[in-house]
Amino acid sequence: MDPVPVRCLLNSISRYLHLVACQTIRCNPIKTCIGNVVFLLKLLKPLLDEVVDCKIPSDDGLDKACEDLDSVVNQAREFLEDWSPKLSKLFGVYQCEVLLGKVQTCSLDISRMLLQLSQSSPVTSNVQGVERCVQEIESFRQEKTVTEHMENALRNQKDDIVAALDNHDIDSIIQMVGLISNQDLLKESIAVEKERTRSLASKSKAKTEQVDQLIYLVLCIREHMLKTEFLEVAKGISIPPYFRCPLSTELMLDPVIVASGQTFDRTSIKKWLDNGLGVCPRTRQVLTHQELIPNYTVKAMITSWLEANSINLAVNSVNQQCDVGDASSMVNNLGSNDFNRTESFRFSLRSSSFTSRSSLETGNGFEKLKINVPASLCGESQSKDLEIFELLSPGQSYTHSRSESVCSIVSSVDYVPSLTESVPENHQSYSEMSPKKDSESSRNVSHECSVQNLDDSVTMMDSHTVKLVEDLKCGSNKEKTAAAAEIRHLTIDSIENRVHIGRYGAIPPLLSLLYSEEKVIQEHAVTALLNLSISELNKAKIAEAGAVEPLVHVLNTGNDRAKENSAATLFSLSVLQVNRERIGQCNAAIRALVNLLGKGTFRGKKDAASALFNLSITHENKARIVQAKAVKYLVELLEPDFEMVDKAVALLANLAAVGEGRQAIVREGGIPLLVETVDSGSQRGKENAASVLLQLCLNSPKFCTLVLQEGAISPLVALSQSGTQRAKEKAQQLLSHFRNQREARMKKGRS
Fold it and tell me: Which ranges does the UniProt record give for the ARM repeats (predicted)?
């Protein structure tokens, strides 16, 4: 038999190798990764050529493995054809390294199969060559990949293992991917944001989640560079981090305020907006307008600082309002030698006449930074020490960007009316803190307070988060209700708020509130936990804090909304395998979910079914769910009137993998409804119903007879011709099994 899959694979490999030879990739990690793919494919290709030349008989396992690798090679080719330097380097490296891993796995599988064939086939003699290929593929190891550094950096942020500003993995990513210059970082920030827009358009949940992680990583890199890297505007004079644009990390020559209340350099934020990006680069808030309001206060401070240090950037004074062209010309006039980065990335600020830092103040977790401001910057006869407070998480991990995102939401117009009880009296909204456009009074703001105002958003946010957590722990019922409600609102749609609030210790007190006899407190607390659990960084934290039993308590005692959200939280947590095991070991959790499945609201039933489906992915949980009498309710939900057929049949397909599940499905009268679903359900419903019927028939001749008695053949024939690919396969397997059963009975009757 002609080995068609092998020939197809050889053709795909040849096309890929030719494309690589014609392409020039400048991104080093991607270039290295592609080189490794080529190395592995060139090892395998001579062995595949021998299979074709020697006409070795086709093997089903080999054909399947070749088809798998053929698919991966075509993905690698498409990646190479689509790659452009304008795309995100981080996402490109991630994609390329994933493909390399798949190529190595598939190549190893094929080479091992070929080794077995060569040892047993008389037409092949190159056994030693095949053995050598297997050994080389097995021993192939990359040095630590960019993806590993990215995963470590994100894990360190989650676990507070390493201070964010002393993160070796972030330094490695910067060097390996080539985000060395300010413009490189700006381009990557824009590119990864555009990648997210594309992933949302493609409706790929997995891709969107991965890109969200990369956006967060780029945010960490920007903050890391702002705090640990020293940009010199002149020899021995470093630019203070609060004078640098959070997007490009360069000195802000023309600072402007965007709709989120954040300040950026006009040139950088205009590039961002011109690329069609409508969210704030720092807080991730949707920008309600794209007007850029000059920040005269910051601009005056920078001008005074430049004058105090006798720095002249350009012929035009920075005091004059610059348009985009002026700002660009200033940057160009600086020259490559004017902005110098130090080679080492360090945690502490460089000692200079302008900045110094005191030791960490104990007892309250705040770090006090004393900034000696020159007299010209203060507007006074003598220099003055200004104190800026920043709240540090455990391990002195800075959370600058995440702090601002929460503060931005707290101070937004939408939330101010509802937060008056819990926001400090001196809390200001961004509209109050920011200078008004063309306002003469804003140009005369006292410089003495300007540095403090720059970091007010961080300080207020940090202190406000601590206040919320304290209210959750020790406040009155009214304060606890307000704090839980506010956290619930802050975490509705902000990735950064979820991460930040989770890091500041809100999870344990929220879990304690699940036992509250006040139903409103209980509902706010469980909904806040649901929002927090959406973040991958919080899923493990919530489960490890002992969330299962409190959530079960809400399932048993809460109001309808609280029960729904408790089930949804368990669903969210059960995305992780370790959490599926932890929840499954609590029989009360499964019983409570099954009870909600049978007796809850429509929304509650759907949330319970989703959680139970996730739990049923772990084999040990299947029997536990069956023993909790879930099958009875699932069979009832197969009735189209309940509008839950797809969810119910999907869960039944998992439970049918165990004997107890199959027995329960038949006992509860599920076969007629399953046949009806094959006949008139949705495409996905038909596929899963066919899967359940196949499990029943393959494991019991008695069940097979019952399925036939319900008239399953006609809908199965139709499904075998017009269903999804997987549904067609299931239907064909069932029809083939029916034929085999009939032939066996006929043969038995003749004998």
Answer: 505-547, 588-630, 629-670
Q: What is the mean pLDDT of residues 380-397?
A: 35
The amino acid sitting at 695 is Q
Where are the alpha helices (H) located in 162-231, listed in sequence order? Answer: 168-177, 182-202, 205-228
Range 462-628 classified under CATH 1.25.10.10: yes
Q: Using an 8 Å Cβ cutoff, are 590 and 552 in contact?
A: no
pLDDT tens column, 251-283: 888 999 988 888 899 998 988 888 888 888 888
Domain boundaries, the chain: 4-142, 163-307, 462-628
- With CA atoms as reference, report the closest residue to 615 among 650, 647, 590, 588: 590
Whether 217 shows a pLDDT value over 90: the answer reads no
Lowest mean pLDDT among 243-247, 517-521, 546-550: 243-247
**Closest-CA residue to 583 (of 553, 556, 546, 610):** 546
Q: Quick check: do 163-307 and 462-628 share a fold?
A: no
**What is the residue whose two structure tokens read 């006449």?**
353
Average pLDDT over residues 329-333: 36
Which pair of structure tokens corresponds to residue 218? Answer: 């780029």
Looking at per-residue pLDDT, the higher value among 538 and 55 belongs to 538
Homologous superfamily (CATH) for 163-307: Zinc/RING finger domain, C3HC4 (zinc finger) (3.30.40.10)
CA atoms of 432 and 60, how far apart (whole Å): 71
- Round to whole Å and give the CA distance between 565 and 514: 12
> What would you measure as the largest C-alpha separation in the chain, in angstroms?
115
The conformation of residue 248, written as its DSSP 8-state character, comes to T
Q: Is the pLDDT of residue 108 over 50?
A: yes
Closest by CA position to 37, among listed 98, 128, 111, 112: 98
Tell me the helix, strand and coil percentages in the chain, rounded to 5.
65, 5, 30
Residue 423 phi, psi (nearest 5)? -85, 135
| Bridge partners, 237 (sequence order) | 234
Cα separation, 88 vs 191, in Å, equals: 5
Can you give the pLDDT at residue 461?
60
Q: Which two tokens stand for residue 616?
A: 């049923």
What DSSP character marks residue 338? Answer: T
In the chain, the amino acid numbered 388 is I
Calpha distance 690→729 (Å, rounded): 9
- pTM attached to this predicted model: 0.45
Q: Return d(Cα 306, Cα 318) in angstroms, integer.
A: 9
Give every CB contact of residue 665 below 8 A, 6+ residues apart in sequence.
631, 635, 652, 655, 656, 671, 674, 692, 696
Tell me the mean pLDDT in the region 157-167.
48
pLDDT mean over 701-711 = 91
pLDDT band at 581 (very low <50, low <70, confident <90, very high): very high
Structure tokens at 78: 């498409």
Residue 63 confidence class, pLDDT cut points 50, 70, 90: confident
Task: Compute the distance between CA of residue 669 and CA of residue 690 in angstroms, rounded to an integer.
Answer: 16
